[in-house]
Design goal:
397 residues, mainly alpha, two-stranded antiparallel sheet, globular
Length: 397
C-alpha cells in the first residue's frame, strides 16, 4: 500500500471518528432536554463537583478528543488548501477570542464542531443528526405519550392543556419537530413528494392541537407549501433561478435580527404595540424588560431567567425567548454579529450553488428565531456547521 493510499485511509478514518464524536455529543445534548432520569453527574463530574476528565475528552468543553481529530485532519491533507486553512485559522482565532471573553460552553462547542466539519460532506453530518436525534426524539415522544415518564404538561388556560411529550416544554417539542422536518427536506431535496408536504401540514395541525406551539406550527405550514412548490419547480423543465429572492433569503437573518431588535427597543404600552406583542407571544414585552434591566454589552453577561419549567407562576416569569434579543443581551453584540456573519457566509455559498432548499432553510430558521432561541442550539439546529463543510450539490436522497 502506497503512502497516498494509507493517507486516504487514515483521512477516511478520521472523518468517521469526527462523525462518531459528533453523534455522541449530539445524543448527550439531546438527552439533557428530556425527562429521562439519567444521573449524568456520575460520569461528567468528579467528587469535588468539577468536570471529569472523561467528560472533558468526549462530552463537554474543551472537547479534547474532537480537538485532536481536528488537528490530525488539518495535517494529513493530500494538497494543502491555503485559502481554506486561512479561513479555518480565522474561525479558530476568532472563536477562541470570543470564548475567552464570554466563557460560554456553546461557543466552544460550535467552534470545534465547525472546524471538525471542514471539508466533510454536510449531507453526511445531517444524516447523523437525523438518525441520532430522530431516533431519540421518537423514543422520547413514545415514552412521554404512554406515561413511561413525565409528559410535562402546561396549562395555558382552563381549556388549553399543552403537552411536551418528555421534552422540556411544548414550544421546544414543536421546535424539535420543525427542525427535524426542515433537515429531512434538505436531504430529500428534489425527490420530496407531495405526500411529504402533506405530512408536514398534518404535523403542523397536530402541534397546534396538542402543544399550542404557534410559531413551529405556522412555519411547518409554510414549509409544507414550499415543499410542494419546490417539488413542482424541480419538475418544471424551464425553471429559472431568481437572484433577487435569493438575495432576500441570504440576508434574511440580518433583516430579521435588525427588525426584532428595533421593534423591541421601540415597544410601548399602546394599543398597536400591545396587539403586536400579543401576536408575537409577548416577545416584545419580555425583550424590552430585559433591555430595561440589563445593558447591551460587547460580550454579554450572565442573566438568570425564569421559565414555566420552574413552576414559579406567571407573576415571576422572565424568559427572553427571542433568539436575537437573547443573543444580544446574554452573549453580546460582537457574538451576535459573528453568528449573523456565519449565516450570511452560508447563505452566499448556497446562492452560489443555486441551492434553493438551503436558502429556504436559512429564511425559515431566521423567522423561527423571532419567537424561539434554537437557531444555534445543537440538538435542534446544526445549521452553523455548514460554514466550513462541503455543501455538495448532489441529487436528493
Amino acid at each position: 500500500m502506497s503512502f497516498q493510499e494509507r493517507r486516504a485511509k487514515f483521512a477516511a478514518l478520521l472523518e468517521s471518528l469526527y462523525l462518531c464524536l459528533f453523534a455522541l455529543i449530539l445524543a448527550f445534548s439531546f438527552l439533557k432536554i428530556t425527562s429521562f432520569n439519567i444521573p449524568w453527574q456520575m460520569v461528567t463530574r468528579t467528587g469535588e463537583g468539577k468536570i471529569s476528565l472523561f467528560s472533558k475528552i468526549f462530552l463537554e468543553q474543551p472537547y479534547y478528543a474532537m480537538q485532536v481529530v481536528i488537528v490530525l485532519r488539518l495535517l494529513i491533507q493530500e494538497t494543502y488548501d491555503w485559502k481554506r486553512m486561512l479561513t479555518a485559522a480565522i474561525v479558530l482565532g476568532s472563536g477562541y477570542y470570543l470564548w475567552s471573553q464570554n466563557d460560554s460552553s456553546r461557543i466552544i462547542l460550535f467552534l470545534v464542531l465547525m472546524l471538525g466539519a471542514w471539508k466533510i460532506s454536510y449531507r453526511r453530518i445531517i444524516q447523523v443528526f437525523l438518525v441520532v436525534v430522530g431516533i431519540l426524539f421518537l423514543v422520547t415522544f413514545v415514552c412521554g405519550a404512554t406515561g413511561v415518564f413525565e409528559d410535562y404538561t402546561y396549562i395555558k388556560s382552563e381549556e388549553v392543556i399543552r403537552h411536551s411529550y418528555g421534552i422540556v416544554a411544548p414550544t421546544n417539542f414543536g421546535a424539535m419537530v420543525f427542525f427535524l422536518m426542515l433537515f429531512w427536506w434538505y436531504l430529500r431535496r428534489e425527490k420530496t413528494t407531495y405526500w411529504e408536504a402533506a405530512s408536514a401540514l398534518l404535523m403542523a395541525g397536530g402541534l397546534q392541537w396538542k402543544c399550542n406551539a404557534r410559531c413551529s406550527s405556522a412555519l411547518l405550514t409554510v414549509m409544507a407549501v414550499l415543499m410542494a412548490g419546490m417539488r413542482y419547480w424541480y419538475q418544471n423543465k424551464e425553471r429559472k433561478f431568481l437572484p433577487m429572492l435569493a438575495d432576500v433569503l441570504v440576508l434574511s437573518p440580518i433583516f430579521v435580527a435588525a427588525g426584532s431588535i428595533l421593534l423591541t427597543i421601540n415597544y410601548k404600552n399602546t394599543e398597536f404595540w400591545l396587539k403586536l406583542n400579543e401576536l408575537l407571544s409577548n416577545r416584545l414585552q419580555l425583550g424590552r424588560k430585559g433591555l430595561d434591566v440589563f445593558r447591551l454589552k460587547p460580550y454579554g453577561q450572565y442573566i438568570r431567567m425564569f421559565s414555566n419549567a420552574e413552576g414559579i407562576g406567571e407573576r415571576y416569569y422572565f424568559y427572553i425567548d427571542s433568539f436575537y434579543i437573547q443573543l444580544a443581551l446574554m452573549y453580546g453584540l460582537v457574538i451576535l454579529g459573528a453568528v449573523l456573519l456565519i449565516l450570511l457566509v452560508i447563505g452566499c455559498k448556497a446562492k452560489r450553488q443555486e441551492d434553493w432548499i438551503l436558502l429556504w432553510m436559512i429564511g425559515l430558521a431566521a423567522v423561527h428565531g423571532i419567537i424561539e432561541p434554537h437557531v444555534i442550539e445543537l440538538p435542534y439546529c446544526p445549521l452553523a456547521l455548514a460554514l466550513l463543510a462541503d455543501l455538495d450539490h448532489r441529487p436528493g436522497m
